[in-house]
Amino acid sequence: MRMTIRAFALVLLLGTLGLWGGLGGTLGWTKTKIPVEKVDAVTGIKYVEWKSGFVPGLEFLALGAGGAVIIFAATLFVRITPK
Amino acid sequence: MKKIFVTIVALSSLAAAAHAGKVAFDFQDPKGVNNVTFKLDAPLESINGSANGIAGTISTDPETLADFSGTLTVETKSMQVPNPIMNGHLHGVAWLDAKKFPQITFEVRKVEDVKREGETAEGKVTGLFTLHGVAKEITVPAQVVYLPGRLKERVPNVEGDLLVIRSEFTIKRSDYGIQPGQSEDKVAEEIKISLAVAGAAPKAKK
Questions:
Q1: ipTM of predicted assembly, 2 dp
Q2: Which partner from A59, B132, B174, B197 sits 20 to 30 angstroms from B31, CA to CA?
Q3: Domains in chain A: boundaries
Q4: pTM given for the model
């Protein structure tokens, strides 16, 4: 049981890191809108168009990794007795 | 009686002459090109956002590009940042309170030190900047480009002129009662603002 929970913690940690890296993670805050810079041909004005997207940030990483650490730590201190 | 009448006519003529040649440019832009960007430094990463809910009218004489009047407004709700939680905070009661203060305005009072080169003029614009319900007179640098006859390139079949205004300036959020002295470790006190807008003056059909 203890090993299963630890394996789950490891999967959670690796999954979080994989998602963070795979989705182009940033060392800033998570973004759900991506600014795309454009230039108006007539006036030369630079402007931003917002597109929906998801770029995981540090809080995403902290949540996943923190959760994995807490689950792993719990297996060290909580007595699990199989029925 | 005759003297009073002559004086009124003379004053009216003077006023008309003063406004002669002034053209009103409308800055409402359905394409969403007109925009204001803002940047706040923060320890984790700088917060960059933009707003495109721009409206208002600026009048000027294209011959001189020296005398300006009018007001530009930005819809507070149109301000956006990439993080959804931060976006909620930005519009919320603690920060900009978009429901109570739906508009940010700049009313032009005077323009000084105008230097003109062709259809481009640069100068210092003094105006009443109202943010978060607090109005302060500020002076900002601005560049104006007059594009005669170019409106039809943006709006097909409509003859007219365009006026492009650009300006960059910095304000302190505490000056406008936005969380003064608070959260400075997360959100910078200084906000860098960059404005780039184009106004349209359609020509009346003959």
A1: 0.79
A2: B132
A3: 2-77
A4: 0.82
